[in-house]
Amino acid sequence: MSEVRYDHDFNLNEWFIVVSLLVGILAVLWLPRRFDKKTTGLYLICGAFIGFFFDHTLSVLPVSYYVINDSSRFEVMDFFSDVMYAPYSYIFFYLYDFIRIKPRHSLLYILVWAFVSAGIERLSVIVGIFHYRHGYNLYYSFVIYLMVLSLWVTLYHVLKHYGNKRF
Known about the structure:
Helix content is about 65%, strand content about 5%. The protein is mainly alpha-helical. The protein has one domain (about 10-160). Strands 1-2 form a two-stranded antiparallel sheet. Keywords: Membrane, Transmembrane, Transmembrane helix.
């Protein structure tokens, strides 16, 4: 299959990624420490891993439901677009802990974050980070957000309960 190319220039979609990544990193650095280094690292890795996993599962052949950034080939900015999820996953866990969300209110928290995530993805489509193909749309992403955020809440409670204990 031939390469799909939308753009050749460094423009709005790349600037959006750079600014989002910088804002996310600054937010993580600005927030008071809430977790130990291992837990902080895990929460950051959660976002980057999920970004890599879903973007490179859904955007490559044989499915290729969307193209990321300017080209169907993997480029440097694609890497940064996946890494930019890391600070936001940390903020998800940070706020969950800071607000002290009770398990019975977790669904509401997950729904709010799923809608925020879908809104940010919609903005990402507008600026040219995602180019949907083959019938893919934001509703599919919304379901993915619900699943991922639910897993994250479960992970949070497992870590909170077991901490550094061995299983």
